[in-house]
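Our working data are protein records whose layout never changes between entries. An example says more than a description, so a record of this kind follows.
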Amino acid sequence: QVQLVESGGGLVQAGGSLRLSCAASGLTVSTYDMGWFRQAPGKEREFVIRSTWTGVNLYHTDSVDSARGRFAIYIDIAKNTVSLQMNSLKPEDTGVYYCAAAPYRRGSRARESFDYWGQGTQVTVSS
């Protein structure tokens, strides 16, 4: 049974940083596209960033423009976890962040392409 468990959310001031973690069981993170989505209050869940393991400490990353240069994914093969480092946070980054897994190299941003989801962790950025 696949489980993705997020942690690390919280309240932070604008300009601050947070690191979210996604612990995976029942799948190996290096054999899936691992992504993060965000759902702001009253809005649909949207793609933020995705990484695909391609070799030792190498992975291809795709992200939305608003995350580029501020957000980064780190894949820890030994711990089978995926982390999302978020820097220079803005109030518009507020939402519930979900970890998700899609078949390897599917290369999609679409929600329906991701087969497994975590329960989400709340991130609130105050102005």
About this structure: The CA atoms of residues 18 and 106 lie 28 Å apart. The longest strand covers residues 46-55.
